[in-house]
């Protein structure tokens, strides 16, 4: 019952929030709907502007409210004691503190010392207001120290050493103030950014970072003040020494020392003034940080009182029982802060103007206004305490209500348990009877299904056996195809980088791989492997590239000796054959169209030259089989010359034909397996 009630509350609240969020999101992009919503729900336009940060961000709103409140109190107190002109803090100076000006004021006497102690100082910028408040000391170009003449007292009291120490200490203090100036500027920007991040991201480590930066800032400021105090002591000691009437100094020496002290002291005073101004501006950031942290601690204490099990600094986890109370507390606190914020924004400005007018008129109501401000502050604190006490009472009443409901639920549960036990007995009897009937029906159906499954399993077993045989054949086909591809690649391999005889490779391994890859009892593979020439097995075959190269040499020699008969020939006949080969002109189309069309012709009418022309024609087109046919028509010495080439070509073609036949057989076997599988 409790869970259903909580579920109803959560669904109702979630639906309301989703509906409100949808209306706000739609009003953002539809001005007409936004106008209607403002008419129906007053104040919705200001709420939408606040949600989407149209006028200013959430942090700016909080800053503005805090700044307005602090300005009201401070200005009222200052006006009360009569310090309006000196302590009035402009609103713009709080939200936009002045930047700093780069300090770069070398003196004519201290150039050599500055080169030795040169340090990279962060550039400092500085707005018009700070420039008006603190102006840098001006030095005339003609204001140079007079020439120095040393005296006995000058060397006796080590005035030169003391002067050098004082100047260096003043410069170190100036650099320390400059570093502190830059550190204050960085501290102000970084702390503001960290606080802005803490609004959108609840990370407790941010406050540790802020404390670390505050400690670093205090350390730098303390270092600068220590160095400034040391430098001032040394300068005062040097002044007392040179102004002592008992010690005699040359007036030129005294004026030179006073000039150097004046220069470094003016730099130190100028930098210290800028530092003091920036420290006053940074105090606003410290106050703002302190206020924000105090607000966080106050909220943590309130949540700790209401929900002792919650760890505010870690992950916020609220139990289901405390969810409604937590939501109620959050809504009341948010409404209270929104009401107070609107009240401060609307009434604060009017009160500031009223206080200003009364201060101008010399009214004595300032104390009353300050008391009213403090009274309003106490009212807000009492209102917050009232909300907290109210929530405590609600929590106690809800706990008591839950305990009463729990006791009633237990009594009702006992009564229901008795009724359920009676119904349970009757229901069990009916269930047992129904189960017995269902068991009999299930056994009959089970036997029928079991018979069907046995028949299917037998058929599946037969199909799997057939598939295993087919897969075995397919594996043999794949291995056979791979071995045939290896044989074909070995036959076709050849390069021009090595002699052709050295490139010959026996094919025994490839042929053995084909025999091993073939299936048992494959008669075709056995017959084809047996038909491969023994020369190809033991020695190997020439590639097509090698046969083409050898044909060109054979053709050249056979062309020159085409007219010689087989056997011996006289030298004049040889010379005549050579001469005739040079005088013959090769025809552009050595083969007639009828012969290319594969029509019958008389091969005995062809001489050796015609045969060589036709063989060359088919060789250029890569048809070694047709080339070999024409080369068989050669006669006489030309045939003797071409005999070896024809034998090698015949071996090559026979081996290649066998490899192609085996490859086709492997592809066919694989195709048959794929059809059987499908």
UniProtKB/TrEMBL annotation:
Keywords: Coiled coil, Membrane, Mitochondrion, Mitochondrion inner membrane, Transmembrane, Transmembrane helix. One of its GO terms (cellular component) is MICOS complex. It is found in: Mitochondrion inner membrane. It comes from the Eukaryota. Its main location: mitochondrion. Residues 84-153 are annotated as: Disordered. Residues 170-197 form a coiled coil. It is a single-pass membrane protein. One of its GO terms (biological process) is cristae formation. Component of the MICOS complex, a large protein complex of the mitochondrial inner membrane that plays crucial roles in the maintenance of crista junctions, inner membrane architecture, and formation of contact sites to the outer membrane. Belongs to the MICOS complex subunit Mic60 family. Component of the mitochondrial contact site and cristae organizing system (MICOS) complex. This is MICOS complex subunit MIC60.
């Amino acid at each position: 019952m409790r869970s259903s009630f909580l579920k109803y509350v959560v669904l109702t609240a979630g639906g309301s929030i989703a509906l409100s969020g949808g209306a706000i999101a739609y009003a953002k992009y539809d001005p007409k709907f936004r106008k209607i919503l403002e008419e129906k729900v007053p104040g919705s336009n200001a709420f939408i502007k606040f949600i989407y940060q149209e006028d200013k961000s959430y942090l700016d709103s909080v800053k503005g409210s805090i700044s307005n409140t602090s300005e009201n109190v401070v200005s009222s107190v200052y006006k009360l004691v009569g310090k309006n002109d000196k302590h009035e803090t402009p609103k713009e100076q709080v939200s936009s503190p002045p930047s700093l000006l780069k300090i770069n004021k070398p003196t004519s006497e201290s150039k050599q010392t500055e080169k030795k102690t040169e340090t990279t100082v962060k550039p400092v910028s500085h707005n018009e207001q700070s420039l008006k408040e603190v102006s840098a000391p001006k030095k005339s170009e003609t204001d140079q120290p007079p020439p120095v003449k040393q005296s006995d007292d000058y060397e006796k009291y080590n005035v030169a050493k003391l002067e050098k120490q004082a100047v260096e200490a003043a410069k170190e203090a100036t650099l320390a103030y400059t570093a502190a100036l830059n550190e204050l500027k960085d501290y102000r920007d970084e702390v503001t950014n960290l606080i802005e991040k803490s609004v959108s991201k609840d990370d407790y480590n941010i406050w540790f970072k802020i404390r670390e930066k505050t400690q670093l800032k205090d350390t730098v400021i303390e270092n600068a003040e220590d160095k400034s105090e040391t430098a001032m002591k040394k300068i005062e000691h040097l002044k007392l020494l040179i102004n002592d009437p008992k010690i005699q100094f040359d007036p030129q020496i005294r004026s030179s020392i006073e000039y150097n002290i004046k220069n470094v002291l003016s730099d130190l005073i100028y930098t210290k003034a800028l530092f003091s101004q920036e420290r006053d501006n940074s105090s606003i950031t410290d106050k703002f940080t302190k206020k924000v942290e105090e607000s966080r601690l106050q909220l943590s204490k309130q949540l700790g009182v209401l929900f002792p099990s919650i760890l505010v600094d870690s992950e916020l986890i609220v139990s289901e029982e405390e969810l409604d109370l937590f939501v109620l507390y959050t809504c009341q606190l948010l409404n209270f802060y929104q009401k107070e914020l609107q009240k401060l924004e609307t009434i604060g400005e009017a009160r500031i103007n009223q206080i200003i007018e009364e201060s101008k008129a010399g009214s004595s109501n300032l104390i009353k206004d300050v008391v009213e401000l403090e009274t309003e502050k106490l009212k807000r604190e009492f209102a917050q305490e009232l909300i907290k006490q109210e929530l405590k009472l609600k929590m106690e009443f809800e706990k008591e209500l839950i305990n009463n409901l729990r006791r009633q639920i237990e009594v009702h549960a006992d009564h229901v348990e008795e009724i359920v036990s009676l119904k349970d007995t009757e229901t069990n009897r009916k269930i047992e009877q129904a189960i017995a009937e269902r068991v009999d029906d299930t056994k009959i159906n089970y036997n029928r299904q079991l018979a069907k499954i046995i028949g299917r399993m037998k058929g599946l077993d037969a199909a799997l056996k057939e598939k295993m045989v087919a897969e075995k054949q397919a594996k043999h086909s794949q291995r056979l195809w791979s071995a045939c591809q290896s044989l074909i690649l070995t036959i076709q391999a050849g390069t021009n980088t090595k002699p052709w005889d050295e490139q010959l490779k026996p094919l025994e391994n490839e042929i053995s791989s084909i025999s091993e890859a073939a299936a048992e009892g494959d008669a075709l593979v056995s017959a084809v492997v047996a038909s491969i020439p023994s020369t190809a097995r033991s020695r190997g075959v020439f590639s097509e590239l090698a046969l083409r190269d050898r044909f060109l040499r054979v053709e050249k020699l056979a062309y020159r000796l085409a007219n010689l008969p087989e056997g011996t020939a006289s030298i004049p006949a040889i010379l005549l054959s050579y001469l005739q080969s040079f005088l013959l002109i090769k025809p552009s189309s050595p083969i007639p169209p009828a012969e290319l069309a594969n029509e019958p012709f008389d091969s005995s009418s062809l001489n050796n030259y015609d045969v060589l022309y036709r063989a060359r024609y088919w060789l250029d087109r890569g048809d070694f089989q047709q080339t070999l046919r024409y080369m068989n028509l050669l006669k006489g010495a030309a045939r003797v010359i071409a005999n070896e080439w024809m034998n090698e070509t015949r071996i090559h073609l026979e081996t290649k034909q066998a490899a192609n036949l085996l490859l086709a057989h492997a592809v066919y076997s694989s195709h048959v397996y794929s059809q059987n599988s499908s």
